[in-house]
Amino acid sequence: MTAWFRSEGYPVNHKRVARLMRKRGIEAIYPKPRTSVPHPEHRVYPYLLRGVEVNRTNQVWSTDITYIRLHGGFIYLVAVMDWYSRYVLSWALSITMDVSFCLEALNEALSGAQPEIFNSDQGAQFTSCDFTGRLESAGIRISMDGRGRAMDNIFIERLWRTVKQEEVYIKDYRTPREATQELERFFIRYNEHRQHSSLGYQTPATVYAGKAKGTFPSILI
């Protein structure tokens, strides 16, 4: 598409063309990676959050995996988030979908605190014995979304939308190293500087640290 515009006399670069295509909802048809693939032999835990009122930090954490498109391929991003404050406790990147990078993010998050309930989808990484065993050994209750119910993990789905629209699509990473460096900067901005209307226009870091001013509605799932 960039080459065509240039042939027509429009001096544009590929980043601008890509941004405008995304804004208009235009994209090439190509196979996209699946990030949630269940394992038939892994135990699936029930969903524990239906009707639950989330009104404090470290009550519910959640995790999910998304893909980040690079020039010539994909990498995978996992994050652990506190639901009440929207604070991103940890994140990790990987070129493969094995459980190790998910455990890396989980262990980093648990090094500072732990939730009462930990929610995920039914992907093989999160149902693996290594992952669930780490949660159970810490006495954390495990909750899992129903298959095909992305809205059960709505807050981290919103995080992925923010990450991609405000960072990934704009930067158009070329290498995993570049992605790591830029995402590190993004998550610092997200946690410490990005105000959320649902948090009374305070930042996730302020709310998670218990320094929020005023009150805001609890989350009823």
Q: What does the model show?
A:
Helix 6 packs across helix 7. This protein starts with a helix and ends with a strand. The protein folds into 2 domains: about 1-30, no CATH class; about 55-220, Nucleotidyltransferase, domain 5, CATH 3.30.420. The mean pLDDT is about 85. Helix content is about 35%, strand content about 20%. It is built from 8 helices and 7 strands, in the order H-H-E-E-E-E-H-E-H-H-E-H-H-H-E. A hairpin with a 2-residue loop joins strand 2 and strand 3 (about 75-80). The strands form 2 sheets. The chain has a 5-stranded mixed β-sheet, with helices on both faces. A two-stranded antiparallel ribbon has the order 1-7. By secondary structure, it is an alpha/beta fold.
Give the end-to-end Cα distance, rounded to a whole number of Å.
44 Å
Radius of gyration: 19 Å
Give the number of DSSP strands.
7
CATH class of the largest domain: Alpha Beta
What structural category do the secondary elements indicate?
Answer: alpha/beta
In percent, how helical is the residue content? Answer: 25-40%
> Hey, roughly how much beta strand do the residues contain?
15-25%
Number of domains: 2
Q: What is the overall number of helices?
A: 8
According to CATH, the fold-level topology of the largest domain is Nucleotidyltransferase, domain 5
Order of helices and strands: HHEEEEHEHHEHHHE
Please outline the major beta sheet.
5 strands, mixed
Uncertain stretches? none
Shape: globular
Largest beta sheet: what is the strand line-up? 4-3-2-5-6
The CATH H-level homologous superfamily of the largest domain: Ribonuclease H-like superfamily/Ribonuclease H
CATH architecture of the largest domain: 2-Layer Sandwich
Give the mean pLDDT: 85
